[in-house]
Specification:
The structure is a homodimer of 212-residue chains. Chain A has 212 residues and is mainly alpha-helical. Chain A has helices at 6-10, 19-33, 40-47, 61-85, 90-102, 104-118, 124-150, 160-177, 185-198. Chain A binds a DNA duplex (30 and 30 nucleotides) through residues 5, 7-8, 11, 14-18, 39-41, 49-53, 55-56, 59-61.
Chain lengths: 212, 212
DNA sequence: GAATTTTTCTATAGATCAATAGATGGAATT
DNA sequence: AATTCCATCTATTGATCTATAGAAAAATTC
């Protein structure tokens, strides 16, 4: 009789325990040197193992890039959807969107940076898949802006597409300077929100109570 | 007696007549595939010549990148300095800066894109040189914003550094989507200006005449 | 049209890099 | 202690890519 032992149940679950570390090292190296500028040797060096040993964890350098990009996207994916489905005024939701779009930088800066800068080098299929998702996020922003225009929360003469691209560009750029500037993400998000909602200019009237 | 003929005067001036074309092809290929993702063969293919023939025009692939980046920077350089030295209110000058920062996209999109995305792969020395210039441009924006705050044209509670990074991020991102969206640069600049100055939100008071 | 200069070509060297194959060491399991 | 499984290693192949050398062709000049 073969008895299903505890250890045999665990089998497979324990496989490639170091995989997360490996992918994180890949993210770091790709973020620093770019996908094509980085060699598998660089990744191995960052881990203190031999180049060929990496292939125990991924079957190709391109797959490593895909894994890194996926982890870079996840952060946005989770947060964005929840907010899109949630409640609140357009203004409130835009604030949440900007915050949630910046927050993955806290603990996944390299993954996000690689996703933003290197996804173009993914093989065709996964690039399309990730591109589709990317457009989905743009739409979430755009829809909230349109809603705000329709409800009179935002100016009616906006071009919502331009506004979306402007906001996303602004937020995404943070991935490249977040390391050098040392401002905490919630602070950055706060400044961005005020800039996007109110602009640089002084309000026409004396600073009065804003509709809430 | 050797007479200095017209042709001998012209000598050297006529050398490498095709150089601008070669660099433009390099810009196109670097913009599309990234510096390390592009091969010299790709550039040669874009020109319909042999790979080795390129080395008549530049002595290394890295030098080609440098030439492309320089042409990508020039556009900003010229315009930015003139505005910084010019007259006008902070608001007016910021508007000019945003316009002049976007305008090189019209006729040098690939050069700008390569400068923004691939300058990190330049050899140390030229990277530093270009980095120094880049910080110079940031300062131009930041100084105008500070001036606007001091003169009461802009809100006093801004973080001028964050505002600068936000605006530059927004503008620079345009280099990556300008091709797909088909909006003319002056239109994009106009939308960005309104967004930056006034924000998305409706002014607190009824749309009144703004101070000019 | 001969001479000179500019441009492009062929051929190839030399280096780097991703990926495979198979061996080895070590931990866990029985 | 023997066995099985996991992780890493050594060694190497084959492909790709930059860059050089020198010949050939095309254009320009005299």
């Amino acid at each position: 009789m073969t008895v299903v032992s505890l250890s045999s149940l665990r089998r497979g679950a324990n496989q490639r325990r170091r995989a997360p570390q490996i992918i994180e090292a890949a993210a770091r190296v790709f973020a620093e040197r770019g996908f094509h500028g980085a060699t598998t040797q660089d990744i191995a060096d960052a881990l203190g193992i031999r180049q060929a040993s990496l292939y125990y964890y991924f079957s190709s350098k391109e797959l490593a890039l895909e894994l890194v990009c996926l982890k870079g996207v996840e952060g946005f994916l989770e947060a964005g959807k929840a907010i899109a489905a949630g409640l609140g005024s357009a203004r409130e939701r835009l604030i949440l969107l900007i915050n949630s779009h910046l927050s993955p930088l806290i603990d996944r800066r390299d993954f996000v940076k690689v996703f933003l800068n290197e996804r173009q080098h993914l093989p065709a299929e996964s690039r399309r898949r990730i591109g589709r998702w990317s457009r989905g996020l743009e739409r979430i922003f755009e829809d909230v802006i349109k809603e705000g225009m329709a409800k009179g929360e935002f100016r009616a003469d906006l071009d919502p597409r331009m506004a979306t691209l402007a906001i996303l560009g602004m937020c995404n750029a943070a991935s490249s300077w977040y390391r050098k500037e040392n401002a905490p993400i919630p602070y950055i998000a706060g400044e961005f929100v005020r800039l996007v909602i109110d602009g640089l200019g002084k309000p026409a009237a004396k600073r009065g109570p804003r509709r809430r």
